[in-house]
């Protein structure tokens, strides 16, 4: 149980940002089918055209650019492109991306951005919610990807315990 739980809408943004998994080399927004699967898993309307897919990728790129890692320069072009998509959505309920736009607005209105973070490890880049008391967590606690054919690795907390035990 974390000290502070995110808004439901911010959870949706977190999940959307993580439709790309850098470490495992997987991207749900590589295809219309992948995007449909993600939307359906969120309980959202899943009628997706190739144009929707392109807009979703633009939105995600801007979202991930907004979730800066420490010392990174903001990618203003990505963010501007994402905002252009958001403006065009105009909160239409029949658009598969409308829920993302609403989540973006709710996250802004709720002041949730500072706790939605992107792991600064470039091989990882996982987006996570920082529910710590002081909001100073910088890295995700995701277990590392197991190499193909290997047995499942230890859980994230087990890895941390091992790391802490090192001199
Ligand atoms: Zn990470």
From TrEMBL:
InterPro entries: ABATE, ABATE_dom_sf. Coiled coil: none annotated. Residues 132-167 are annotated as: Disordered. Gene3D superfamilies: Jann2411-like domain. Pfam families: ABATE (PF07336). SUPFAM superfamilies: Jann2411-like. Residues 143-158 have a biased composition (Low complexity). This is Zf-CGNR multi-domain protein.
